[in-house]
Every structure is written in C-alpha cells, then in structure tokens.
Design goal:
Rossmann fold, about 10% strand, five-stranded parallel beta sheet, alpha/beta, Helicase, Ruva Protein, domain 3
Length: about 475
C-alpha cells in the first residue's frame, strides 16, 4: 500500500464549488465542508491528515479557518487554493498556518505533486517520531536486564547520571554492553530528542580520526573536495559516544580535551571556531591508568572524562541475568528472521549459565542467533549449542526410573499371585507366608479371580506317594 493511500482530506470551499476528482483517484478519502463552522465541526468529529482550503472564501473567514484548523483541530498539513490574482493573499496565508498554496486553474499534475509532497513529508515526520518513541522505549532504564546485584547498581547509576550534562566514563570488558548503557543514559536524559552519535575510535585510522570528529574544510587535504561536518557538529544538542577512547592518539586526545573544556573546535583546515553543545560519553575496555603510566594516554583527559564513572560487570559475574538476556535475544532473533517464538530447554539454559562467556553479552547474542537458525527441533536443545558451551555442562545425568503409582488392590493381587506361585499353589503354605488365614486367602483369591495352578504330578484325588526308603534303613513311615 502506498504511504498516502487511505489518507483523509478535508476540503473547505464555498457552496457550489466542485471537489477535484483527482483526489479520489489518488486513493484519498475526501470530506467537504462549506465554510468555517462546518469545517471545524467535521475536524472535531473526525481525524484528517490534510486540509485543502479554497481561497474563494471571504478573507477573514479563510484566516480564521487556517488558524483554528492548526491550533484546535491538529490537522498537520494545509494547502491553500487561490486565484492568480490572489497570490499576495496566498503568501499571507503561509504566515497564518498554510504549508503551501496552489494557483487556479488547478493543474492535475501540480495538484498531485503538491498534495503528495505534503503527505510524504507528514509520513516521514510521523515515521521519525515513531522511531524516536521506539528508541526511547527500547532504551528506557526499566528495560535494562538487572536480576543481578551488579546490574541493579548499573541501572541505579544510569538514573543518577542521565539528567546531568557531565561526561561519563563507562568501563568494562569487550562485549559487556557499554554502548547499551550509553544509549540508556541518552534516551533517559533531556537530550533524548536530539542525535545520539557513536564512533569507534579504534576502527578509524589515526590520519582520519580528527576529520571524523571535527570535520574539515574544502582543500584541507587530498580528497577534501568540499566542507564536511564532523561527528561533534552533527551531534550538536545531543550526545556523542566515544567507544574505545583508549585507542585515540595523543594529538587527537589534546584536541578532545579542548572541546570538553571550551565546547568549541576548528574543522581541519578551518580558521573559524565552531561552538557546540554536546554531552560526551566515553567507554574503554583498557586500563587507562596503566596507559597513563606508559605515556599513551593523557592524565588530564582521563580526569576530565571520568567526572562520572560506571563500571559494567562481565557476564560471568552476573549469571542470574543470563536466562532473561537469552529470552530477550531469542525474541529479537525470532522477529528478525520470521521464526516465531523460540524457547530453550532447561538443560540448554543450564549450559548457558555454566559457561564462562569470555566474549560476554555479545558472544551470548551471537551463539543464540546461530542456534536459533540451525536448531534441530522446535526448541533449542543443549546439543544445538557449540561444544565449548556443552562441555561446561558436563555429562548428562542418568535418569532414575520412578515406578508408576499403583492401587492398593493391584498391589495386593500381585502379592497373592507371587505367594501362591512360590508355594506351588499350596494355599495353606501361601497363607502362612502371608500371615493370614487360609479362609481369608481363599476369599481374596475368589474376589480377585486368581487362577491357582495345580502342583505338577498331583492330579485331583490322587494319594500321596510313598517315599522309597534308603537301603539299609527300616521304613519308619515318615516322609
């Protein structure tokens, strides 16, 4: 669907004027109002994306319509339609709330272009506002996963430092989420509507980093064919995040220190001071104090950066956060790749929690993305994880067989059967072994319908055979 299709247009014109049919052919919905009262009544009962106001209305009425449509009804775009003789009036209307004007007789192509441009601008602005709100929602402090005590402390520090304009030094190992902390500071600060610009100081050659930060003038060096603004200028009013600031060369460090102290700089090859209002957040995974001792980092810059300090703990020190982090990353992977809702088995979660994570949160995210895409079943099993993570779990424990629960009657019936089988069907012996009377045994055998096997070689009615005496002994008649 085209971005402007379905948009609703309010056409304000004198009675008897024709509605330009081209508006409907553009996929727009048009509602007509004759005069100020009708226009304002429609605007308060429905939402319109744009208003077209015919300049044939009386001068005083036109001005009132324009002002009240913008102020009271919140219509974001207004296009005036005037006669050629009324162009001065159209120009005055631009100061009264109109965004553009169109001269009669109306040219079809011109009307399409003007209406389309205003609605496209509105769509762009709405999209930018939506993205801004989404970023603010995404990086709100409440979304910082903080089951562990260490991350709860980081969350509290973010809330403390966000309203200030002081510099913040964010410390932590590579991959712990230092940029996430920086974004949370920015989007919870009064600067949230202004730019957040991140720059990785270790990824830019020394010969180019000054130009990247402060911009350059035309002819400042070979290839500088025009003036270019630097990151500090682009971030004016907002926040600049200097990641891996410990990798910055000493010359650029001196210029950065001046920007922090003076809030001004000169572009490379320039002769004019450029003033900016930028909050600086810096991060590093290196030991800056050791770098100072080796004369690789300026001590004065170090103290200027660490006005406020936040230390982000490594993932191995906050294992309580791993299950929630894993669920968050899997939800994102599922949305981005159209995989739906993904789940980890209990054993897979245990494996993630036991692993040491030298690459920290970044490694966890990459592992889960790979496992989600290459998994062997509907859920992510421990077997879907890399061997190094599975090895941290150890061998899978043997499962104990838990017998099924049986009724008392089933247990008693089986006990009777076993007793009779062991006593080769002799009810007297079986009753004695069970500690019950023979009649009780007979009653239970009948109740449970137990068939008693007869003893082999002893047909019913047969007499007990005489035992043959051993040679040399008298027959005593005993068995």
């Amino acid at each position: 669907m085209h971005p402007i299709e379905g948009k609703q247009i309010l056409l304000v014109h004198p009675s008897g004027a024709e509605i330009p049919p081209i508006l409907s052919s553009m996929g727009l919905r048009v509602a007509a109002a004759h005069g100020t009262a009708a226009a304002l009544d429609l605007a308060t009962r429905d939402e319109f994306d744009m208003a077209l106001v015919d300049g044939a209305l009386p001068d005083t009425v036109t001005g009132e319509v324009l002002k009240r449509l913008r102020r009271e009804s919140g219509i974001p775009s207004v296009l005036m339609i005037v006669d050629r003789a009324d162009i001065p009036r159209a120009i005055r209307a631009l100061t009264e709330g109109a965004d553009d004007y169109l001269v009669k007789p109306i040219d079809r192509a011109e009307l399409v272009a003007r209406v389309g441009r205003l609605l496209h601008w509105q769509h762009r602005d709405d999209r930018a506002l939506h993205l801004s709100r989404e970023l603010t929602r995404k990086y709100v402090v409440g979304n910082v996963i903080s089951q562990s005590q260490g991350m709860r402390r980081v969350r509290d520090q973010i809330l403390q430092v966000a309203p200030a304009r002081s510099t913040v030094l964010i410390l932590g190992e590579s991959g712990v989420g230092k940029e996430l902390v920086a974004k949370a500071i920015h989007y919870n600060s009064p600067r949230r509507a202004a730019p957040f610009i991140a720059i990785n100081c270790s990824a830019i050659p020394v010969t180019l980093i000054e130009s990247e930060l402060f911009g350059h003038e035309r002819g400042a060096f070979t290839g500088a064919v025009g003036r270019q603004k630097g990151k500090f200028e682009l971030a004016d009013g907002g926040t600049i995040f200097l990641d891996e600031v410990g990798e910055m060369d000493l010359i650029t460090q001196a210029k950065l220190l001046r920007v922090l102290e003076e809030r001004s700089f000169m572009r490379v090859g320039g002769a004019r001071e450029v003033r900016v209002d930028v909050r600086v957040l810096a991060a590093t995974n290196s030991d800056l104090e050791a770098s100072i001792a080796r004369r690789r980092f300026r001590e004065d810059l170090y103290f200027r950066l660490k006005v406020l300090t936040i230390r982000v703990p490594p993932l191995r020190a906050r294992r309580e956060d791993i299950p929630e982090l894993a669920r968050t990353f899997l939800d994102q992977v599922g949305r981005d790749n159209g995989l739906g809702r993904l789940h980890l088995t209990r054993r897979a979660i245990d494996a993630l929690a036991r692993y040491s994570w030298p690459g920290n949160v970044r490694e966890l995210k990459n592992v889960l993305e790979s496992a989600a895409i290459t998994r062997s079943g509907p859920d992510i099993q421990a077997a879907d994880l890399p061997r190094t993570i599975r090895d941290a779990l150890g061998p899978e424990p043997r499962r104990r067989r838990i017998p099924a629960v049986r009724t008392l009657a089933e247990t008693e019936r089986d006990l009777l059967r076993r007793a009779l089988r062991r006593c080769t069907g002799n009810r007297t012996h079986a009753a004695r072994a069970l500690g019950i009377g023979v009649r009780t045994l007979q009653r239970k055998v009948k109740t449970y319908g137990i068939e008693v096997a007869r003893r082999a070689g002893r047909p019913r009615g047969s007499q007990r055979s005489t035992v043959t005496p051993r040679p040399g002994r008298e027959n005593s008649g005993k068995m």
